[in-house]
Every structure is written in structure tokens, then in C-alpha cells.
Design goal:
The complex is a heterotetramer, with two copies of chain A (336 residues) and two copies of chain B (329 residues). Chain A is of the alpha/beta class. Chain A contains eleven helices and seven strands. In chain A, the strands form two sheets. A five-stranded parallel sheet of chain A has the order 1-2-3-7-6, with helices on both faces. Chain B folds into two domains: 184 residues, Rossmann fold (3-Layer(aba) Sandwich); 130 residues, Rossmann fold (3-Layer(aba) Sandwich), CATH 3.40.50. The chains are: A alpha/beta (336), B alpha/beta (329). The structure holds thiamine diphosphate (2 copies) and magnesium ion (2 copies). One thiamine diphosphate (TPP) sits at the interface of chains C and B.
């Protein structure tokens, strides 16, 4: 079992103002980054199977959003879901075990990267279907309303997902039913190879909120504080029964869409430009500048997180492979 | 004491009402199920009894509402979705098949989707090709879904109560022509088990296996055949997934002849699975005649009454099909 | 064969300013009204089968829109499609024959009310699936672009349809591809029993156009002139390659949703209020007031249209029933 | 002269390129088919050859793009839609089934929908349950759709050219594992007829009928079996709808034994239709053993390589299945 300090909201103001909150956020950013760099490497060396979608460059979104959530809140995630999963508090070993197709993985090796879920931390699952999780999030939020809890649900999805009918139907339901759900669009400017400039005519995806008379905001998705603040507001609204919000987080993925991407659709200049806006380095620098952390403390955190990832790999590799014998009996939950 | 007789639609409504009374996590959602009472009048007064939160009218967005049901089910509710016509499940196939059916298995077993999806199915109302399909084959082929086709008021209530109680997604395809038919239905909550076929009539000469509205039609045919000296066993699988072959095999071992009757188009339809299972044995050894399928024609359902009747098996077709089988033609 | 004078645009200005255009529009309004009153009656007397959805009260939408179209332009229609079909120029006898399940009907009795199409007048078909025709319209418009014609496509649909994913996906495609398509929403305030007040939170459906950076306008759907003018503008834009427009026409249906509607969801007062805004009477009165027609001429037109409908019924009733023998060979078009 | 050998993906690309050259109404639309060249590299350089108008990248909206194809086809174009994974057809079922399949019939015959929908199907790439299904059963059951499953580069080109020429909607399910396999493909445009099965190998002992990727696997198995003295006929139906039973019946009349192999889950899968047709005669009279089906397990496709292999028939399963059939077990 390998975990990092759970995210927690600042006592007041920004994440970067509050030492405990800021340190946890830095851990989260680093854990996502190192986890994905590790799996990228293992993939390249043929140690991993299937395909996978990395969020390297997008870590501030999941981190900023989940800093505003409680463990009892829920999320739905995407094919590019490692960051959401980690930020919501998943066990890194079980995640790694899943990618390595182990019996101890979150899905017992049945799901892989695109299907990790974690009931304990309220992660209702990554999803291989673009926009597939959005109506599910609305439904989980409807359940909160019916059960009269004050939990909220966050649905993560990409820019490309907002062109799917599922996005439209789910936002409309959430709107007319005043559901406690926050729609978080990670606009990384491309849906696979197709740029938002070509896939939609709106300037900002948050403009689409108006079609549901729902607040829509656009924030710098590489800025933990900005993401946190927008989420906090939306969460407060949702908990107060005031309904959903659409938050667009503008960000960028440094890596290709998936392992088979030749990056023919974007320029080296564009990628390099965005690397200068790297959310992880940016947040670390900010904390040091603000005097929240010393450089040494930051290095220490970095080293600790690296170790956690190493542990996760070691533990996961030692686990037994997933077991074909139990497949047929696993399709249905047994009727009592 | 005389037995209480209610309609198929009333039986369904009673099942839902009782489930909602006894379990606060049960709720309904669908188009026009509120004050309108449902396109086929199934939800009726439930809206007035349970209020708009639990009998939830939805915008016209099948994918969204099935997805919402999946999400609610994932966190412990027991949604019952009504899709106004089963044809519109075409809009929700991603949520039904790629999400609901797979989540329990694919996500490793911790989560499950205790959801019921009900939809009126079948032809016979002059509503033409987009409002008359029998799509059970699609669902029955998907691992992770249970599929039931209630053929009488009694089954409608009992199967639905089992479906609501089931921790897995269950597709309940009701037949439009049955909604107004009546039969005895006990008042108390009772469950008809999912995965158990029912033998409705026993006869030594041939075995008729029928689904949905073809069950009552086959029973009528059997009565006519009996007048002609032909005694048919009639079996209703009730559940297409999982499928109970036991009674079918047993009966064929007595009769040696089997006729499979479904409303859906013949080609690659559900009933072919029963033929396939027979062909794999052991029942094949008992056959004295080849298997006979009597199915819908491989055409979209037409509007004109005489065309609509022509494309799905009617009572006389079942009678003459059985006679042909007895004569070995 | 029973037809009315084809709709034609005014030489300039409003439909109600131009005698030829106005007379044709009045014929169209009356033909729709009388056709539907006739089938309503036949239905009640058990002479018709299936179900049907009447546009009584909504006649000005189809009339105003189609007055701005050429015969070579296309439309896609809905379950409530008689008005579109008639306004686009269909043969009333073949329509009536279809409803009567005759071999001479537009669909040879295979489709009925919900599936009438007319290749000759560019009607690509009514549709039993709510919003089903909207992506099809986008595709027909894409074909115009690829073939470099200057034809446009109009897609009719209801308020309820705008909550379907198909609406969203189609409007987005039309937007990003600058397609020559006009999306005409007949907002009759209800999708079956569910009011727009409950099914969406926007005040005006035309606000949804902004999600596709597309012009959106709302007009009085009971006013032929207003509908015509908005359509004309949109058609001009589309023909000029400037892309799609969403037009919301606010109107009301006097009858129930379909034959089985008990009208539990709206008040008698509301229905009566809207009957005072009847588009047919309103247009007739306007023409008389403006001096475009005399009362006598209007009566004459009314009588002529009534006769056409009577002819349509008589001719249709005399036609042979549709033929089951040809069904199996009709599923596929023969391969050459 | 040596025969030209290209891959299955190249054969498909060549067919599309030739069709686009010879007919200006042919165009492609789909996600990432432009500069990216398609998720499986099928469209490749077509974008550069024909430009972005005719090789049209789309937003992620499967229902919309299939609907757009239907609309374009209705007014005389010949669209070829690529759905990135066949699993995502779940989003487009309304347009495929309620619109494309029914329009010609339901609207009275004047209009038709000459559209091709291509999609990569099947498991074997570690992409898990939502990216690995074999959904041919759904489409084959729908009147108004033609369904083809090319099993080699040669068929891929020939069947696709027939599909493009067909005035009706044709669903072409390609198999992901075949894209990189090679074989002889003539350079000229040729058509493999839709509705004609192919006998790939003749043997007297048993008949193997296989679809999709199971065809080559069955051929390999037949080669191994031959080493063991068992001679198998291998038949590829190629077209699931319409289905050509002639060669299957003929072969069974010689061998008396039949094994049906598909990747899709067994329950209510396409191959049951073949078993059903056999059970209806005449082939049933020739059987010396019950029909044997070798199919995917009734589970969603899992991610782990060993699990994924375990749930669909592999070469050794086919070999041992045939041996079992020969031994009558
Ligand atoms: C319904 C559906 N269509 C297409 C795909 C293939 N696909 C997977 S990810 C992706 C791009 C998604 O873009 P976006 O929503 O922007 O998310 P990002 O990958 O950029 O995080 C595509 C097309 C899919 N998985 N599901
Ligand atoms: C996909 C789909 N869902 C539901 C229906 C059932 N239905 C038919 S018409 C209708 C209401 C449509 O409302 P709207 O779009 O406003 O059109 P109107 O009937 O008011 O003209 C409904 C729910 C359908 N035909 N198709
Ligand atoms: Mg993106
Ligand atoms: Mg309406």
C-alpha cells in the first residue's frame, strides 16, 4: 500500500496560502507526475500492456478540484484518469497493480488503466467511453439529492467530450433538477488529434453552460489555486442546493494522446511553449517564492513521493497475476 | 374465494408501488411518467402517491436518463427507468451496454448497478417501424445484463419484483398488446425467479417454446390444436438471460418435436439460441423432426394493419405451423 | 391527385404584402388545418389506424418557413409532420392514402403518419424518433456543400427535441462545417406532457444556439410573416455559405399530443388563450384588413381548399389497400 | 510473376482510394481519420490525397456523424463512416437501426441509404471491455442492414468495394488483429459479392464455420489437425446478413460434423443462427454428432493478457474442439 497525504482544503483563501493544504497539493502533483512517468517508462520497455493516456502537464486540474472535495464526495473520471484517481486519494500500489494486470489491482486486472474505480474514495470509475461518465455523475448527484446528503459529485471530462450528446443531456438534467454536480472540463485543446478550434466554434467551452442556464467559468488549468477557487465556489453552490456549474480548465498534455500517437497534429513549438507553463514546477516555485516551503523541504517531498511510487511498483510487481478461473462467476453480483 | 384479477399494466404498477413503499431507495424515472401517467398508462397514479421526486418526469433524453439511473444505482439507489418505447433504447445503448452491463465485472467487483430498465416492446398497434420492434436479442447477447419478458400479469409483477431486488441491471421488456390483458395476480409481494422457465401446458405431441406475446397466442393455438387431437406442451422461458433449458429439453425428450415462436425477425433472433442449444444436445437425440422456427419476417414492422399482421406470427400461423410439424412438412 | 398552390416568397418584404405569396400561404394554412381536422374526425370514427400527432394551431410555422424555400431545397420533419409535408408541396391525396394504409400512399402503407416522405418536393421524411431528423438534415446539408449546390436544408423539430443529444451533435457539426442548414424549432411549450419550463432552464430555446456560435432567433410562430422573415434571413446566410441558424418559433398545439392524450398537464384556460391566437384566422384577418384579399375571396379560397381535402379523401379511399405480397422484396433496394 | 502482398489495412485504404477516384460522391467521415490517419492507421494518406473535404475529420459525436452520413446518402452521396471502435456504435444505434436500416422500406421505396459504416471490432489488444466487443449479432438481426466481416486482405478490399457500390446500408466490421496481417490483393478494383460464403479448405472429416479473426485461426487449426489425420473443411460465411447456407449445408452432408467458431460471446450470438438453420434441416439429417459451438465466454472482455486470451477461442481451443468433436465428446 502506497499513498500520499490526502488533499485538504486551505483553512481559508488559496491552497498556496496554507501550508498543510499546499504541501498535500504538491505531493499530489508530484505523485501524478511520477506515477505517469513511471508507467510511461514501463510501457516503453514492454512491461505494460494495452494502451494508456497520460495527464502529464494536466496535474493541476485534478489536484485543484479534489482539494475542494471531501472523501465522501464522488467523482467520475475518464480514459485519462490516473490524475483524478490519485488526487481523490487512491492507493498507488493498487493502481499500479491494475496496470500490471495483477489480482490485487483495483479491477483485479479486468479493467486496466481505463477502468480504475475506488469505492472507498468515491471514485466511481474511469471510463473508456468519451463523455460516458457525465450522465453517470448526474445520476450519482441525483441520488445525493434523493438521499438528502450534502455530498457533491464532480465529473471530469475533456474538451472533445463536450461535443457528445451525453454531455448535453447530462448537463440539461443536472440543470433542471438542480443537482449537486460540478462539471469539470479539462480543455487540453485536442480531442485525440482534433483541435478544439476545429471541433467547436465557441471560444470558450464554458460558454456552453448558458444553454442550461448554468454558471460557466474558465480558469487556468495549470494553476492549482485558480482551479481550487473555482471548484470551491461551485461546490459551495452545489452543497447549498443551488445546482450545477461548468468549469473549464485550460491546460495541455505534454505527451501524445495515447501510446500510438505520432503527434502529427501539433507543432513542437506549441508543445515546448506549454512545457514552460508546467503546472508542477510552477506550483513548487510559487510555494518557495511565497515562503510556504523551503527548497529543501520541496526536495524532501519530491524524494518521498518518488519513494512511494517506487514502493508501489515493487509491491505491485510482487503481486499475483489476475486469475482467469474466477471470470465466469464475476459477471453478476450474487443475488442474496 | 374468488381470485383477484387485474391487468398486466396494473400488475406492473402494483409491483412498483409495493417496492417503493418497502424500500426508500427505489424510484422511477422516465418520460411522461408523472401526471400523464406513462405513455401506456403504466405509472398511472404513482406520481400522485409518491410525488415528483420519486416518480420523476424527465426531459426527452434517453441516454441521459439511463446514465442517470446507472449513476444513482452505483451509489446505492434502485432506479427503475421507463423507456417510452423499447425502440428508443437505441439511444441509450452505450449506457446500457458499455456502462451498466460491464461495470460490476470491469471495475473489479466492488461496485454494482442494481437498475431496472422497463420498456414496452413489440408490434400490433399500428405505430410502424420505429415504435414496434422486439429488440430482446440485443440485450440477451450482452454479458452482464439479465433479460426478462413477462408474458402475463402474474409474471409481470413477480418478475419485476425480482428485477428490482436484483443487484444487477435487469432489462424488462413488456409487451404493448399485453398491457390491457387481465389475469389473476396475488396482492402480496411475491417474486418470480429470474432464470427459471415455466411450463404452461403439457402435451405429448409437440413442444412449443414461445416468448412475450407469443406465449398467450401459443396457448390459444394449443387449445385449438387439442380440439384437433394434437396435444402441445407450451413453455415460456420468461428469462432470456440467463436461459433455463431444463424444461425445454425434458419436454422434447417426451415429444420429439419442437416449434420455437418469437415475434422478432427470425434472422439471428433470440430464439435461434434455443435451436442452437437443442442442436448441441442432448435434446437433438430426441428429435423426430427438425426444429421449426416460427418468427417475425425479416422486415421492418409496417404501418398498415394487414401488413403488420402479415409480418408476425398470428394464431392461425401457430396452429398451422404445429400441424405442419406434426405432418413432417 | 389533390394539391394546393405551391408556396412562393413575396417579391419583396412580407408574405402578407404580396398577393400571390399571401394567397398561397393562406391556402397552405387552410390545407393543413382542414387536412388535420379531417383525419382527426376519421380517427375518432375509427376509420384510421395507429396514432397521429396534429399540428392544429401550429400551421404558421411550416407555412412561413416553406415560403422561403425552393422546391429543390430539402426538409426533415417530425412525428408531427403533416404541416411540413403539405407546406413543402406534397400531394394531399397521397398523404391521405398513406394514413388510410393504401398502396398509393407515399409509403405504400408501410409508414403511416409518422413516416411520410416525398422525394419530389425534397421532404426527406417525417420521423418517429424525436430529434432523429436533425443529424440527417446536417448530412443532407453537408452533401449540398460537397456537391456545390446552393440548396439549403431545413430541419423541423420540437422544443422537447432540443434536450436530445442528437440536437447537440447535429448543431455542432453544422456549425463547425458551416453547413447550409436552418434548424427550426417549433416550441409549442410541451414535449408530450412535459413543459419546457420543466424540461430546460433557458428562457428561450434560441439561446442554445450560442453553444455553437450560431445565430439564434425567437419569433412568434403564429405569425406567418415573422416566421418567413427569420427564415429568409437564415436561408440567405446559408446559401451564401455563412452557415446555419437556429430559429425558435413559439406556438401552441390546440389538440392533445396524440390520440391517447387526456390533457392532464395543461389548463383549459391556457388552451383557450392560445386559441385566441389562432394563426389561420389571424392571417386571414390580416390579409383582409390589409386589403390584399376581400372577405369573399378568402371564403372562396377556403371553399376551394375544403374541396381539395374532400377530393383527397375520396380519391384515397378508392385506392387499393397496401399489398403484403411485396413486403419481403422491399427491405433492400436491388443492387444493379 | 509474383503476387502483390499488402496488409488488410492497406487493402481497405486501397479500396477507399479507388472508390473515391472513380466516384466523386464517395467520401469518408470519422474521428481522427485526417492528418492522424485513423486510430488504426487505415485512412493513412487518404487525407493528403483527397483533402479535408472528402476525408473529413469529425468532432467526437458518433450519433451525429452517422446521422450526417444517413442524410448525405439520402440525397445521393456515398458516405463511408469510420467509427473508431465498433463499441462506439452503441451511441449511433438510433441512426443505424431506426433510420438507415428502415428508411428505404418504411418511406415507401423512393429513397435509399447507400452508406457504409466501417468499424474495428474484436479483442486481443488489451483495450478491455469497452474497446473489444464483437457486436455483429446486433446488426445482423436488423432487417435492412447488410453485414460483412472481412477475414483477409483480399476479402477486405473486395467486400468493401461491394459495400460502397451497394445502394443499401452496409456494416463492415473489420478485425483489429487483422489490420497488420498480409496477403495477396489484386491491384485492380474487384468486388467480392455480398451474400456468398467462401470455402477456404475442404476436408472430409468435419466442417468448421468461422467468422472474422476466427477464420485464419481455424485455418491454422485445420493445418494442425491435418497433421493428426483429421481433415477439416473451413468455411467463412463472409456476409452475416444475408447469410449463404449453401456451402455449409453441402459440406455437412459430406462430413456429418460441424463446429461453429466465433469470437463473440456464445449466448444469443450470430453463430447460433447457423446452428438454428442446421437444426431446421436439411443439414440436420446428415449430422452424425450434435452441432458444436466454440465461442467467446459470456463475459465482458478483460484487460489482463492472460484473461483476455482465456475468454475467446484460441488456436489450441479450436484444435482440441475439433478433436473432441471427432471423438464424439
Ligand atoms: C464515444 C467515444 N468516442 C471515441 C473514443 C475514442 N477516443 C478516446 S479518447 C478520445 C479523445 C478525447 O478527447 P477529450 O475529450 O478532449 O479528452 P482528452 O483525451 O484530450 O483528455 C477519443 C476520440 C472513445 N473512447 N469513446
Ligand atoms: C427518441 C424518442 N423519445 C421519445 C419519443 C416519444 N415521443 C414522441 S413525440 C414526443 C414529444 C416530443 O416533443 P417535442 O419535440 O416538443 O415535439 P411536439 O410533440 O411538441 O411537436 C415524445 C416524448 C420518441 N418518439 N422518440
Ligand atoms: Mg482534450
Ligand atoms: Mg413540443
Amino acid at each position: 500500500m502506497a499513498t500520499i497525504t490526502p488533499l485538504l482544503p486551505p483553512a481559508a483563501g488559496k491552497v498556496s496560502d496554507d501550508k498543510a493544504s499546499a504541501m498535500a497539493a504538491l505531493e499530489s502533483l508530484l505523485a501524478i507526475r511520477f506515477f505517469e512517468e513511471a508507467v510511461d517508462g514501463m510501457f516503453a520497455r514492454g512491461l505494460m500492456h494495452g494502451t494508456m493516456h497520460l495527464s502529464i502537464g494536466q496535474e493541476a486540474v485534478a489536484t485543484g478540484v479534489c482539494a475542494a472535495l471531501r472523501q465522501t464526495d464522488f467523482i467520475t473520471s475518464t480514459h485519462r484518469g490516473h490524475s483524478h484517481c490519485i488526487a481523490k486519494g487512491a492507493d498507488l500500489t493498487r493502481m499500479m497493480a491494475e496496470l500490471l494486470a495483477k489480482q490485487t489491482g483495483y479491477c483485479r486486472g479486468r479493467g486496466g488503466s481505463m477502468h480504475i474505480a475506488d469505492a472507498k474514495t468515491g471514485n466511481l470509475g474511469a471510463n473508456g467511453i468519451v463523455a460516458g461518465g457525465i450522465p453517470i455523475a448526474a445520476g450519482a448527484a441525483l441520488a445525493q439529492k434523493l438521499k438528502k446528503t450534502d455530498n457533491v459529485v464532480v465529473s471530469f471530462f475533456g474538451d472533445g467530450a463536450t461535443n457528445e450528446g451525453a454531455f448535453h443531456e447530462a448537463l440539461n438534467l443536472a440543470s433542471v433538477w438542480d443537482l449537486p454536480v460540478i462539471f469539470v472540463c479539462e480543455n487540453n485543446k485536442y480531442g485525440m488529434s482534433f483541435s478544439t478550434a476545429k471541433s467547436m466554434k465557441v471560444e470558450r467551452i464554458s460558454e456552453r453552460a448558458a444553454a442550461y442556464a448554468m454558471p460557466g467559468v474558465t480558469v487556468d488549468g495549470n494553476d492549482v489555486d485558480a482551479v481550487y477557487e473555482a471548484t470551491k465556489q461551485a461546490v459551495d453552490r452545489a452543497r447549498a442546493g443551488q445546482g450545477p456549474t461548468l468549469i473549464e480548465c485550460v491546460t495541455y498534455r505534454h505527451k501524445g494522446h495515447s501510446k500510438s500517437d505520432k503527434n502529427l497534429y501539433r507543432t513542437k513549438e506549441e508543445i515546448d511553449f506549454w512545457k514552460t507553463k508546467d503546472p508542477v514546477g510552477k506550483f513548487e516555485t510559487l510555494l518557495i517564492e511565497k515562503g510556504i516551503l523551503t527548497k529543501e523541504q520541496a526536495e524532501q517531498i519530491t524524494e518521498n513521493v518518488r519513494n512511494e511510487i517506487r514502493n508501489a511498483i515493487t509491491e505491485a510487481q510482487a503481486a499475483p497475476d489476475s486469475d482467469p478461473a474466477e471470470l465466469l462467476s464475476s459477471v453478476f453480483r450474487a443475488v442474496n | 374465494m374468488s381470485e383477484r384479477v387485474i391487468t398486466y399494466a396494473e400488475a406492473i404498477r402494483e409491483a412498483i408501488g409495493q417496492a417503493m413503499e418497502s424500500d426508500p431507495s427505489v424510484f422511477m424515472l422516465g418520460e411522461d411518467i408523472g401526471v400523464y401517467g406513462g405513455a401506456f398508462g403504466v405509472s398511472g397514479d404513482l406520481y400522485h402517491r409518491f410525488g415528483e421526486e420519486r416518480v420523476r418526469d424527465t426531459p426527452i433524453s434517453e441516454m441521459g436518463i439511463v446514465g442517470a439511473a446507472v449513476g444513482a444505482a452505483l451509489v446505492g439507489m434502485k432506479p427503475i427507468v421507463e423507456i417510452q418505447f423499447s425502440d428508443f433504447t437505441a439511444h441509450a445503448m452505450d449506457q446500457i451496454v458499455n456502462q451498466a452491463a460491464k461495470i460490476h465485472f470491469m471495475l473489479g467487483g466492488e461496485l454494482s448497478v442494481p437498475m431496472v430498465l422497463r420498456a414496452p416492446s413489440g408490434s400490433g398497434t399500428g405505430a410502424a417501424a420505429q415504435h414496434s420492434q422486439s429488440l430482446e436479442t440485443w440485450f440477451a447477447h450482452v454479458p452482464g445484463l439479465k433479460v426478462v419478458l413477462p408474458s402475463s400479469p402474474m409474471e409481470a409483477k413477480g418478475l419485476l419484483l425480482s428485477a428490482i431486488d436484483d443487484p444487477n441491471p435487469v432489462i424488462v421488456l413488456e409487451h404493448k398488446l399485453l398491457y390491457k390483458t387481465s389475469g389473476h395476480v396475488p396482492e402480496e409481494m411475491y417474486k418470480t425467479p429470474i432464470g427459471v422457465a415455466r411450463v404452461l401446458r403439457e402435451g405429448k405431441d409437440l413442444t412449443i417454446v414461445a416468448t412475450g406475446v407469443m406465449v398467450s397466442r401459443s396457448l390459444e393455438a394449443a387449445a385449438q390444436l387439442s380440439q384437433m387431437g394434437i396435444e402441445a406442451t407450451v413453455i415460456d422461458p420468461r428469462t432470456l438471460s440467463p436461459l433455463d433449458m431444463g424444461p425445454i429439453n425434458d419436454s422434447i425428450s417426451q415429444t420429439g418435436r419442437v416449434m420455437l415462436v418469437q415475434e422478432a425477425p427470425k434472422h439471428v433472433g433470440f430464439i435461434a439460441e434455443i435451436a442452437a442449444r437443442i442442436s448441441e444436445g442432448p435434446a437433438i437425440y430426441s428429435l423426430t423432426e427438425p426444429v421449426k422456427r416460427l418468427c417475425g419476417m425479416d422486415v421492418p414492422i409496417p404501418y398498415a394493419p394487414q401488413l403488420e399482421k402479415a409480418v408476425v406470427p398470428q394464431l392461425p400461423d401457430i396452429v398451422s405451423g404445429a400441424q405442419d410439424l406434426m405432418r413432417g412438412v
